[in-house]
Amino acid sequence: MADHEDLEFNPFYKTLQSTYWSRFEDAQAKRYLVCIPQTASLVGVNIDNNFLDTHLLKPSPMLQDHYISTDKNGSKTIIVDEAFILTTEGFSQPGRIRILSEELGYNKDYKPFKMLIIEKPLEGAVKGRRGSAGLSDEFLTPRTRFLENKQFLGMFPENRHTVKCLEESIHQFNQNYMIVQGYLKDIAKKLRRICEEHKQMFAEANHYIKLQSDGRLEEVLSVAVESYVMGSVHAKVFKAISAEKNPDDALISDKLQQLQGITGEQLGVAEEFCCPLPAAVVELARLDGINTPHEKLTCLHSTLDNITEEVNIHLRENLAPGHSPQCLTSDDLLPLLVLVISQAKCRHLASNLYYLENFHWVSSKHDNLGYSLVTFTAAMEYIKNTDFSHMKTNNNKIKKEMSIEELMAASKFAYGTVSTTSGDSTPTQRIFDQSSSVAPSSVEQQSTYQMKSLQMQLDNISRMMESSSISSGPTSIFGGFDGGSREAGAKGPPPDVIPASEHRPNRAQLGGFLAALQSDVLDCSYGKQD
């Protein structure tokens, strides 16, 4: 018995939403009372028109809180008495049934109607049947990773023989099945058949599925079987997919190269939605290293969630007083996703999307993973069919730091370093030579002023560098890691992650060197401008 019922998994409610939708829609329009027995009480119950007649009830025109069944003769009557329903006229066994909760729905005219979640059916309950396997919601949630699904399949002693049969089928495929280029659809059919056959074997042997009436355990089991099979054959299958989709992957790679330096505004994103998206870039950069279809799809879904979340944070932080934050629309989401794809540097985007479209067969009605695949497919088609070469890259931003080589070059110029062996003239001498038309006295004064200014700037830079803690390891000035510190075994170039601190309105999170540059009191700005 549950205090809260998830209607999405309730067999009666699902039947109303599908098989008997027209009757349910009519009941909503007439604002009937809908009595929904809890999931655990519906094991073995035949849900037909007679069952609907008893549980879709119209208000009595004469008495308050009295409701009449919707069969032709209106033969049954119930009374809603606070926390209970009293079955009175027309029932074979009048009695009292507890109301677990009440839901309020709205019809097409936005008028409310009541749905009561009740302890058991008003009539037609099957006696002596256990309605729930007693499994927690966490246990009935599909696993994501390959190892998690492998462990899940091994949790049930009655399924050990089925696990061995599945492992043998996978071994036979990896060792003996020859993949011929151009026949990827045949590979998908064979692997799908392996998954469905063994999923059926698991369901028939598993003791809990017969007790769990809402279908969630069966869904978890289906995901586990598919993930275990596809994770085990991924290396062989994805190699064939990559070979066939190599032209598309190469085209997308060229397009992503054109996108380097392109901003969201240039792709049509509203200015208020443009901000760094490091979390989304890092999440999507994992895609090539994931094996199972379900986890790859979850990665795509998380990427979209991260984009939305980071944009919402940016909007809230820059929200003017008295204004409401705007909502990110699909028109802005798509170009933002294109930018994230370009920064994550996915080398096999076309191959991955083909893999998900053809080798993922377990779908759930209760998540948005399918929507994520559609969104990424639309982004891929946009990338393939758009010419970005005419767009000018945004290279005119002032850099917030100078490289060591640039500092050394500036130092040599400021001090007028002269090579004693080559006899080259100093920068100061070249200034005099190029400015011969100027009076010597004015040239000397101008040169002295320039030298003092540059000297003061470089002394200030030296003090800043000394006060900053610069690690000898391959770390970036933002405190993150560069390509040299990527995890061992990781493949592909590192993603272009923009430091999250750049889109914050305050600058308190800058490192010592950048903070000192920001607080410079000289009347002359410096830094490199492309």
From TrEMBL:
Signal peptide: none annotated. Residues 481-503 are annotated as: Disordered. One of its GO terms (cellular component) is plasma membrane. SUPFAM superfamilies: VPS9 domain. Residues 246-392 form the VPS9 domain. GO terms for molecular function: guanyl-nucleotide exchange factor activity; SNARE binding. InterPro entries: UPF0507/Ank_repeat_27, VPS9, VPS9_dom_sf. Pfam families: VPS9. GO terms for biological process: early endosome to late endosome transport. Coiled coil: none annotated. This is VPS9 domain-containing protein. It comes from Strongylocentrotus purpuratus (Purple sea urchin). The lineage of its organism: Eukaryota, Metazoa, Echinodermata, Eleutherozoa, Echinozoa.
